[in-house]
Amino acid sequence: MKVGLFIPCYIDQFYPNVAIATLKLLEKVGCEVAYPLQQTCCGQPMANSGFEHLTGGCNENFVRNFADFDYIVSPSGSCTLHIKHHLHSTNEEAATGIRSRIYELTEFLTDVLNVTALDATFPYKVGLHQSCHGQRGLHLAQMSELVVSPPFSKPVQLLNLVNGIELIQLDRRDECCGFGGTFCVTEEAVSVKMGKDRVADHLRHGVNYITGVDVSCLMHMEGILKRANSAVKVKHIAEILTATL
Amino acid sequence: MNKQLILDHADAAVEFNKNEAKVDWHDETLWFVRTKRDRAVAQIPEWEQLREAASQIKNHVLSNMHDLLIQFEENAIRNGIKIHWAADGDEHNAIVLDIIKQAGATRMVKSKSMLTEECHLNKYLIDNGIEVIDSDLGERIVQMRNEPPSHIVLPAIHLTKAEVGETFHEHLGTDKGATDPQYLTEAARQHLRETFLTRKVALTGVNFAIAETGGFVVCTNEGNADMGAHLADVHIAAMGFEKIIPRAEHLGVFLRLLARSATGQPITTFSSHFHRPRPGQEMHIVIVDNGRSRQLGRPDFRNSLKCIRCAACLNTCPVYRRSGGFSYHSAVAGPIGSILAPNLDMKKNADLPFASTLCGSCSNVCPVKIDIHDQLYKWRQVLMREGYGPGSKTVAMKAMATVLESPRLYRMAGKVGRGVLRFAPITVENGLNPWYNQREMPEPPAESFHDWYVNHKKA
Amino acid sequence: MTTRDQMLASIKANQPAMRPIPAQFTFTSVYPDLTQQFIDILTFVGGAALIVPDFAAIRASLQTQFPNMTSVATTCDELADLADVTMNVSDPHELSGLNLAIIEGPLAVAENAAIWVDERQLPQRVAPMITQYLVIIIRQSTIVPNMHDAYKLLKVDETGFGTFICGPSKTADIEQSLVIGAHGARSLMVYILP
Predict the structure, then answer these.
(1) What pLDDT score does B2 carry?
(2) Which residues of C touch B160 (CB under 8 A)?
(3) CB 3.0–4.6 Å: which of B331, B388, C64, C163 could bond B117 by disulfide?
(4) In the CATH scheme, what is the code of domain A125-241?
């Protein structure tokens, strides 16, 4: 199976370790992974700002890079969701194919590869931030608003395979952190307040690390933690799933 | 375009957030309502099917609106109710004033009606010499303070009991410093009893209008709509035309959903079905458009008209809870208000669809399954395409798109950008990046993943 | 064109293609004991209920609950002796001094403790709201599981006015603190006959 690795622009530029961990994780579970070198961005920064009509170039570039893979996998629920919902192209057949074959990392591991064992160790108290686009857009976990059973969470299912990890329960298990793309600067006051409240929920439960499936949310919370000189760190879930002592 | 307009919600939110303790209190209070809602709906195993049924009934209503309204009118007239049609808020207000004058009255008691807030009825009547008293406790509180409601179900949710105590001390003569809700509510009860007993005209809203029977349903917990209507010689019920439902049996679906979604109650204390005026009474219904038929014609936005005004989307919205109802500068605040308001005035409300992280919780709690967060996204597209964004934002977005669609420019910008972080999408809005006010940016790494991959994998 | 015709024309032009009413919009609720479910919910919303064998038991209970109360009215012939005033007035304002109204409810709903009353039970529509205290007498055999069942049995326009009453009037408009007795009755006592 040929897997195309889609690394969102801000991970490429600011969090290369998350991309490296994702690549290693996929190779470890037996995938043949390629990273198309001409990839850039999913176009979401423009689209969520009301400028979806400016994303044609990004879309065409995305299709050029990823049309030929069996699966496209990305360590971001948000960018995956954007492609799934909004990728269109002059080659619409290729775009439709990509929309149906793109997966966020954890859902790819649980739903396509049925991963049931991981050789990883991370002996810390960890809080999972359920990023909204992964949660409510891709249904990575049961949503607190809906009356559905039984409960499930794809990221938790994977984190439970990690040796030594202690996952804490949050008071509000799937409240938004307030990153929200350009919202984080256009609505700075509310964005930061939401972030502080999310971080406080994790801190109340004594975490060492906050993890999640979206680096954007983690970057926002990391920014708040750092400003407060907190010892608590953020790690993308791929880094924990590949962690060794 | 005027940047000030775009920043309206954000600016108001900055003000609201200057008192962080109050923000925490507001957030916790509304989150408490959300948890009550969660507990109530968890007791109904068929909850999601009920939502689906409600959604489909409302879809039918939107598609059959013309015939249902005619059927409703016919049956209501047969029931002895007078029907009035109002194209906009002004016409609605004029009709109400005319009915009051015909009754020879100069005072009116009113129960909760978001429609009359939307039409600014109170101001109009007062300007025309009519005294209006809002009888819902929360609405009475904000009316005394000369404020609009900050929430469509809990109008005074932005106020602490100390603030209410002060207002009542000033207006109702309660003891100075008194804050006990029981005591304050009793004072309002006495004051409003006198009002109910002395007003000849009462206005109520309408929760549901039944085409099949020509009657309407009004839901309250306090009993204020009933007290007003049953004691008045003239009862005026004001409704947006979208309140129509086909048959009485459909109320089974909506009354099971409404109060549970709103406050976590199994049903409101009173769900009153009005079909005929009582002997000697006049009953009027004013059916209002005010932009609704225009919204009905927008395929992407028409199903916002399915709303039953439960406010579940406000209570669950992490932004609403931390920016307050007034930050939405619209009669209906919160996520639902943000998809309704641009239809009324795109320029004035261009900021509202951006007052969201698109987290999607609003759509999940909506009892009639309005795709609220998708509509927020779609309104953003419409508003920017039609030029309601600031010019600087358009320029920045065009520049960003040019960089992001070109692998070569993207990598070049990255090399420069990692040093000064100029390239990050979140910094494009302006030079003085608000990110840094209360947050740090990540340490820029030595190389991008792209460069690492080329160095390690291709070698 | 009148406003009416303009509005209707605009609506007709803008409404989408016909969508059907869904095939399923009623659901079945199963409770092991309908009466107990009704009582539990009524208690939850601030009301109180008592299962009684007959009107004599209701009378005895009322005399303990509301000793020496005046301005009492009832529509139940069996309890007529407890009343000193009537709800059969031509002007509803005459009920402003009513302390206790005792009425019958022909239909009750287990899922939400709502009781239907209409003008067959209410000589004046305002009676159950304007009274200081409210008592409703229902029969176990008329408790249905949910609202769908209730609407199947009801003809909502049989009389000019009808309402579902669920508990005493209440408000939480001051800081979300629940206060029983907003504008309507300060308490609701429900007697459940066999």
Answers:
(1) 39
(2) 175
(3) B331
(4) 3.40.50
